[in-house]
Specification:
This protein is of the alpha+beta class and 230 residues long. It is 27% helix and 22% strand. The chain has helices at 20-31, 38-47, 83-87, 118-132, 156-164, 173-178, 214-218; strands spanning 11-14, 52-57, 62-72, 101-109, 137-143, 182-187, 201-207. The structure holds coenzyme A (COA).
């Protein structure tokens, strides 16, 4: 029996300008040819520096993960807003410090270091940020990375229901559900040119219990919530 790889203790800290080459190189390894551009990374630091995080391997000092976020006033958007719309084409210039929702626009970890707790560390730092800024919640679009393998057999809604029940593993959504996120909707055309998700994404949410009122849970769409959960 092979044992699970040991967790890699990483340092998660706010992104700095000098990290851009490392982030772009990480992007190339993750998405092969869809890297964040330097002008976008520059814009993120200008509008919301606290929302930009990198994970560093202290052994090599290399960037092995990143997470990029902005704050939005959710009421300004429809549930089926696409990635371009909610990130202002990746520039985050729609960042609104008066909003209550931290929007996770990106999270990625080094493909050679997956399942070693780097994504988990980045998400823990994101939740800390939401708590520190007293935001109501974190939302994000989770691209349904494994859907192309099931598209001939089931609808995206059925696929997500099976992931929530633990009957199917999706490399992205299963990870996010493990980070205490819930699915509140399934949307189409979230990403352009994504042959894995075919453009489908789950809108996911983590609620900050320190801020949320009863009403915030009651208003949560329940269709994809696991039974018996808020
Ligand atoms: C999604 C992603 C960030 C996960 O990063 P990671 O560093 O491998 O995640 P971790 O090792 O911290 O895993 C955390 C948890 O998720 C689970 N998990 C992670 N990847 C998984 C997978 N492929 N299948 C099942 N579970 C998975 C782990 O078992 C772990 O569970 P635990 O908390 O109970 O121990 C990474 O796979 C990635 O960069 N994917 C490509 C980019 C992407 O699609 N980003 C999402 C955009 S919406």
């Amino acid at each position: 029996m092979t044992s699970a790889p040991a967790p890699l203790p990483v340092l998660v800290r706010p992104t700095k300008r000098r990290d851009f080459p490392g982030i772009i190189s990480l992007c190339e390894r993750v998405y092969s040819g869809r890297p964040w551009r330097e002008d976008q990374l520059e814009s993120h630091l200008k509008v919301f520096p606290e929302g930009q995080l990198v994970a560093i391997d202290p052994g090599t000092n290399r960037i092995v993960g990143m997470a990029a976020s902005l704050i939005v006033l959710w009421d300004d958007y429809d549930m089926d807003v696409d990635w371009k719309g909610i990130t202002d084409s990746g520039m985050f210039t729609n960042h609104d410090p008066e909003g209550h929702t931290l929007y996770g626009a990106e999270v990625m970890t080094d493909p050679s270091l997956r399942r070693r707790g780097i994504g988990k560390a980045l998400y823990a730092a994101r939740r800390d940020l939401a708590r520190r800024l007293k935001l109501l919640r974190i939302r994000a679009g989770a691209r349904l990375r494994g859907y192309h393998q099931y598209a001939d057999r089931m609808s995206p809604d059925e696929y997500v229901t099976k992931i929530v029940k633990g009957e199917i593993i999706d490399p992205t959504l299963t990870f996010q559900l493990r980070q205490r996120f819930r699915v509140i909707a399934v949307v189409e055309d979230y990403l352009e040119r994504d042959p894995e998700s075919l453009g489908y994404a789950a809108v996911i949410e983590w609620v900050n219990h320190e801020v949320a009122k009863k009403r915030d849970y009651a208003e949560r769409p329940r269709r994809f919530l696991p039974e018996g959960k808020q």
